[in-house]
Amino acid sequence: MKEKRAIALFSGGLDSILSCRLMADQGVDVRAVTFVSPFFGYELLARQAGHCHKIKEKYGINLTLVDISDAYMAMLRNPAHGYGKHFNPCLDCKIFMMTKAREMMAELKASFIISGEVVGQRPMSQRRDALRVVERESGCEGILLRPLCAQRLEATPMELTGLVDRERLAGLSGRGRGGQMAMAARFGFDDYPTPAGGCILTDPIVSRRIKAYYAEHERVSAADMRLLMVGRQFRLPMGGWLVIGRKESENSILDTLRQPGDRCLVLKDRPGPTGVLRYLKSPADLVTAAALVVRYAKKDIHGHPQPGVVLCLEGEETVEIDIGERDVRETQALTA
Ligand code: SF4
């Protein structure tokens, strides 16, 4: 008899929760995995233990996070099936994650994989033919079960051999959420995530930035990808890269994204935005960056930027930069 253990691809959305619960209710030992990259789920890494504990408490699901950043970023440069509307390589993304899950099977002693996909739910990656492509190209034919729509698909070996009871799987399809809501109510879940975008690669503005970055750079890093997703972005004349927070929450995020070698810029005597300056090569860029921080700080009553001193922090060192009206004026071209 095969092990009744499955790896679940777990996005954290309702569908993935329900597919795990459907299996657990049949006595399958479900090991859920959330793959994270700078484009989805990365912030969970900082609170991994607490997050996994919460999922266990709320839904009774054993969860592990797996960071796939480097390999995922490499795939994103040239996905075999191309991109969706933005820079989202949905089909290749699914194939990539299924492949990773398959590679983890031996280690976890799992005999099959489950996913929360529902046939016809998403235009690109969940059409019936797309589901088959994912299965085939990830090497998961015969070992992948989609519990939420299984009754609408051909029976898998797991069902045919009796490892899983097909009668107790679901037959959902399409974009409606009614079936999922009813199922959630049956399981007694009244507090679950709403269907979320979740993936920044489908965001029209940020995905354009990421695409442009890929076009300009042969190598990409998770740290750079994460910095691309926040605040106002500036390419400075001498090659520096400045990001300025637009609100308090972005200033806090920027604080967490600083890397060794980055400069952090803040006003000395009054509150204002945080700037993170990366890849500084010339002192001229440092002055420009400080002037931009002043420019986006609170204006005077006439709506003009107020000159001031900007602190530049790097490691243990702090440098003061005095910014006058002229310095601020000279940033005009960069903000146009
Ligand atoms: S939306 Fe993002 S995470 Fe979801 S399949 Fe597409 S690329 Fe992957």
CATH class call of the largest domain: Alpha Beta
- Low-pLDDT stretches are none
Which series of helices and strands comes N to C? Answer: EHEHEHHEHEHHHHEEHEEHEEHH
Number of strands: 11
Q: What percent strand?
A: 15-25%
Descriptive notes:
The protein is α/β, with parallel strands linked by helices and 336 residues long. The chain folds into 2 domains: 5-187, Rossmann fold; 230-335, no CATH class. Helices cover 38% and strands 16% of the residues. The chain has 13 helices and 11 strands. The protein has helices at residues 14-24, 48-59, 69-77, 90-108, 128-137, 157-160, 178-187, 204-216, 222-228, 248-257, 283-295, 325-329, 332-335; strands spanning 5-9, 29-36, 62-67, 112-114, 144-145, 232-235, 241-244, 263-267, 275-278, 308-314, 317-323. α1 crosses α7 (178-187) and α4 crosses α5 (128-137). Bound molecules: iron/sulfur cluster.
Structure described in brief:
With about 325 residues, this protein is of the alpha/beta class. The protein is built from 13 helices and 11 strands.
Topology:
Layout: E1 5-9, H1 14-24, E2 29-36, H2 48-59, E3 62-67, H3 69-77, H4 90-108, E4 112-114, H5 128-137, E5 144-145, H6 157-160, H7 178-187, H8 204-216, H9 222-228, E6 232-235, E7 241-244, H10 248-257, E8 263-267, E9 275-278, H11 283-295, E10 308-314, E11 317-323, H12 325-329, H13 332-335
Parallel strand pairs: 1-2, 1-4, 2-3, 4-5
Antiparallel strand pairs: 6-7, 7-9, 8-9, 8-10, 10-11
Helix pairs in contact: 1-7, 4-5
Bound molecules: iron/sulfur cluster.
